[in-house]
Amino acid sequence: MTTFLQATFDGVATGSLYALIVLGFVVIYRATGIINFAQGGALLLGGYITYNVSTSWGGNYFLGIIFSVAVCAGFSVLLQRAMLQRIFREVVGISAGLLGWAALFYNGTTHLVGLIGGVVIGVLAYLITARIEARVGDRGPSELPLFGAIMVTIGVLFIIKQVAASIWGFAELSVDDPWELSTSVVGDVVLQHSKLAAIAMAAVALGVFFVVDRYSRIGIAMRATHFDHEAAIAQGISTKIVFATAFAIAGGVAALAGSAATAGPELITPNLDFVVFLAFPAMILGGLDSPAGAVAGGLLVGWIQNLVKTYVATTPAWFPIEDLDWLGAGFERVAIFIVMIIVLMVRPYGLLGTEEVRRV
Q1: Residues 242, 247, 253, CA angle at the centre, nearest 5°?
Q2: Residue 184, SS3 per DSSP
Q3: What is the predicted pLDDT for the residue at 15?
Q4: For residues 304 and 333, what is the distance between their CA atoms, to the nearest angstrom?
Q5: Cα angle vertex 300, ends 50, 296, to 5°?
Q6: Do the strands 189-192 and 183-186 form a parallel or antiparallel pair, or are they unpaired?
Q7: How far, in Å, CA of 112 to CA of 57, rounded?
Q8: Are 310 and 6 in contact (CB under 8 A)?
Q9: Which residue would you say has higher pLDDT here, 52 or 93?
Q10: How does pLDDT run across 301-357, given as a tens digit for each residue?
């Protein structure tokens, strides 16, 4: 029983992180129809920015989390405008800023000086391009096709991954958080404080989102846009604001998940974004357009993953097969995809997803 309870606690902690990641996927998907793989980049940036603030710069860990959430939310909004709507001045500004940062950083400046210089160069490029557009005429945004937009997000993920490796290197880094290796014992179950903090942060973030989504004006606008874009526009709802809000929420929760995933004994590397692909089955299980399904799917996948990992390593006495080593290392990652396939065979739209009705 102790083994089961320990695996359940660890599974809830892992599932809480998955729920945050999947919530970002779901919020963007139900607003735009896009599966945003750049969530992995926001997760990676969130972890590294928190590391920089709390460890490299010696700042407060919680301020580092707030700063990383703000930066990644802003980055996601810029991605939505610059890459997915093809706003020319934003594209020029971001490109010039990245080139400026690279030129300064690789010529011996510090991270902070390079970042400030890149921002200044990017803003100047943006203002100059906006002035030119005002003179020659601006044709306005032109949205990418759905498949093209998804491919852009995949490309952005790989770019961020390489940029992160260029700045922070490939070595494993330890974040200076308040919990470190501290634990408590309840019965025979060991509760890592970092995992308790991850569960608490996820619970607060998810609770705030559901309150905003249910009772605020922007939440009502997001739900109305999800059901019918044209009807929402006819009622005076700005889809631009809805799309930007969806991307900001997704970037913020991904940064929070990245910060929580690197706390305690966990280390941060450029491969942190891989957790997004482990969380992806949770979105399919819960339903592509269901925030509640994101939470249910995330917790379910985290629980199953840790149960399988635990019982493959130590096969229980009641199990008919004594040795499960033949399943191979990392079988818990395969198991969640097997569960996803079984659920989809029964419920093609996920546990809480909305069934699509097509007229023929």
Answers
A1: 125
A2: strand
A3: 92
A4: 10
A5: 80
A6: antiparallel
A7: 10
A8: yes
A9: 52
A10: 999 999 888 887 777 666 666 677 777 777 888 888 888 888 888 888 888 877 765
